[in-house]
Design brief:
By secondary structure, this protein is of the alpha+beta class. 65% of the residues lie in helices and 14% in strands.
Length: 443
């Protein structure tokens, strides 16, 4: 007994730790978790950091650039030159072989370059703000897409779980009916058709239960994937589907003032227009001259052996200051064609922006209509379910009293099962349609 108690005390901390490690989420908690751990959201954050680094990379190209160069040469066999021998007191018309210089040489230099004027650099720096805005808007769109995906996946898990519970309840009721009907038939007081009818219904419900159990596992794995968790994680959902649906019914959302500039798709379309505008400026800037300055300082050393690192080695210094001016004169109308293409691209972007505005307004009206329909369908499905339950209950009583046939009972049961699924789906539709509307409103 003592050994058993000691073992239990040793296991308790481990069991508590294992229980704490099981992820548990409400819908809002799942959304917040996904915004930090979803794979697409993580990469969107990295893209934003990358855009900031790219902005500085562009700016740095116009700032002072320093480069160094070191060179070493060892002439294994030096070239020989011929000089008229008369220079050395020899006979005219003859030549003397001469080797110039020492076989080994080294040089080291440093160059400072500074861009003074470059139209493309100015445009590039201006365009970095647009590129950074695009990355931020893309991150915002990713977050909205992740939020929508979490809501849909969360609702699908709740739907699958409720379907399992309802199917199990229906199956238990049918098994009881089939058992009682079979006993009556075996005692010679019923007909075989009644048993067969119930058996058909039970087989159908059993298949639905098995499918719902499979879907429960699959939908949970899909939710884990969206959350950024391992797919086999035993995630627990703390929301109730009916309560969650009630919280999502907010018709006041339909009266929310809509500012299209807050819509992320509009922002991205605007970014595209701005990008095309800077591409046009870049094409025009290629007709401007570029001016760069540089200063260079270096040294050269010569020797018969490698002793360039010794303190007594002599080095000969040199320095150059210069300016480079490049003037584009004639490109066989290539620059003109590039500029015209950039103008066409800008006009196309403006047209796409106008189209995006109209599409977004249409999407808003459609989302409002779908949300209203989902709420209305939810109310209707709830009423239909109550009616179907009463009808099925009455037929159960009639059947047990011999006033209804097995076929009539099966019809009532099938109608009930259909109403149950429609009711569950209507709740999920309310949640999803509200999320779609909030995505357009950027709420």
């Amino acid at each position: 007994m003592r050994t058993t108690l000691i073992s239990l005390f040793l296991l308790l901390p481990w069991l508590s730790s294992a229980q704490d490690s099981i992820p548990s989420f409400s819908l809002d908690e799942a959304i917040q978790y996904a915004l930090e751990h979803n794979y697409s959201s993580i990469n969107a954050s990295r893209d934003l950091v990358d855009a900031q680094k790219q902005k500085w990379e562009t700016i740095a190209t116009g700032l002072p650039q320093i480069s160094g160069a070191i060179s070493y040469q060892n002439q294994l066999k030096q070239p020989v030159s011929q000089i008229p021998a008369e220079f050395f007191g020899g006979e005219p018309g003859t030549y003397q072989e001469v080797v110039f210089g020492q076989p080994q040489s080294a040089s080291a230099s440093a160059t400072l370059k500074q861009q003074i004027f470059d139209g493309s650099y100015i445009v590039g720096v201006q365009a970095t703000k647009t590129f950074l805005d695009y990355s931020q808007n893309n991150k915002e769109k990713t977050n909205l897409d992740v939020r929508k995906a979490v809501v849909e996946a969360y609702g699908n898990v709740l739907l699958a779980q409720e379907s399992v519970l309802i199917s199990e309840k229906n199956k238990a009721t049918l098994e009881k009916n089939l058992y009682e009907t079979r006993r009556i038939y075996e005692n010679g007081l019923g007909d075989e058709e009644s048993v067969d009818q119930l058996q058909i219904t039970l087989s159908s419900v059993d298949n639905q239960l098995k499918n719902a159990q499979r879907l429960e596992k699959i939908t949970l794995q899909m939710l884990n994937l969206v959350l950024g968790l391992p797919t086999e994680s035993p995630t627990v959902l703390t929301e109730d589907l009916d309560v969650l649906t009630q919280k999502q019914i907010d018709l006041g959302l339909l009266d929310t003032d809509f500012n299209i500039e807050n819509n992320v798709d509009y922002k991205l379309a605007t970014n595209l227009t701005e990008q095309r505008y800077f591409e046009l400026k870049l094409a025009k800037s290629r007709a401007l001259p570029t001016l760069n300055a540089f200063v260079n300082y270096g040294g050269n050393s010569f020797s018969d052996s490698f002793n360039f690192l010794s303190s007594g080695q002599q080095w000969f210094g040199s320095s150059v200051l210069g300016v480079d001016l490049s003037i584009p004169i004639f490109s066989s109308f290539g620059r003109s064609a590039s500029t015209q293409r950039a103008k066409i691209a800008l006009e196309k972007a403006k047209t796409q922006l106008t189209e995006a505005q109209e599409q977004i307004r249409l999407q808003l009206e459609s989302a409002k209509s779908d949300y209203i329909l989902a709420v209305e369908q939810y109310g209707t499905s709830k009423e239909n379910l109550e009616l179907a339950e009463r009808i099925e209950n009455k037929n159960q009583i009639k059947y047990s009293e011999g006033l209804a046939t097995s076929f009539e009972l099966r019809q009532a049961q099938t109608q009930l099962y259909t109403s149950q699924q429609e009711y569950l789906q209507s709740m999920v539709d309310v949640i999803n349609k509200k999320t779609e509307l909030e995505t357009i409103l950027n709420q």
